[in-house]
Amino acid sequence: MQKQRIAVLISGSGSNLQAIIDACQAGQINADVVTVISNKADVYGLERAANAAIPSLVVSTIQGESREQYDQRLLAALEPLHVDLVVLAGFMRILTAEFVNQFSGRMLNIHPSLLPKYPGLNTHQRAIDAGDSVHGVSVHFVTPELDGGPVILQAQVPIFAEDDAELLQQRVHSQEHRIYPLVVQWFCQGRLTMIDGKAMMDGDILAAAGYASDDQ
């Protein structure tokens, strides 16, 4: 199968970007990261791209522009690259429906909660404040609804009495770096699709919490 072309969108340190780069270089993912795009300059994720000899681009916000105008510039940066998959890896912007629909079924996001719990920000503190005993992370297809696309895979972590948000975040991050490359691998193998708003794995509709088997 021909190697897939991946664009990764970031806003920060890019630890999930690094996990995906490593998996591509190891041959786990049959793909190349062909570009890394950040909405912020001087973030460490851009250094990760440079260290891996991956072209990168900063698409900064212009004062006074609308979300639609920003997304048009982002789309213009992506279109010439003919990417097969867009991976959001800590990209801290809400994308417009028009942009999302351009990549329907070809855009993934990772969110630090067990969706549909805690969409949006501050998920670790919200889980602690709610008295939850478990927390986790979800990889999902991106749809116009914020953090509302069909879940593909989740990983759970325990919440201990002594946890603060930073400790919990570290525990979640370790699972992010494990499951995100795996989901990207499935997509690049042609096993994972989105049809009629449903995540499909090997032709079967996934349950609401995503793929639940240890079989890979």
What does this structure look like?
By secondary structure, the protein is α/β, with parallel strands linked by helices. Helix content is 31%, strand content 25%. The protein is built from 6 helices and 10 strands, in the order βαβαβαβαβαββαβββ. The chain has helices at residues 15-25, 44-51, 67-78, 97-102, 123-129, 165-188, and strands spanning 4-10, 31-38, 56-58, 85-88, 107-111, 134-141, 151-158, 192-195, 198-201, 204-205. The strands form 2 sheets. Strands 3-2-1-4-5-6-7 form a 7-stranded mixed beta sheet, with helices on one face. A 3-stranded antiparallel beta sheet has the order 8-9-10. The model has no long low-confidence stretch (mean pLDDT 96).
Write a brief structural summary.
The protein is α/β, with parallel strands linked by helices. It is built from 6 helices and 10 strands; from the N terminus they run E-H-E-H-E-H-E-H-E-H-E-E-H-E-E-E.
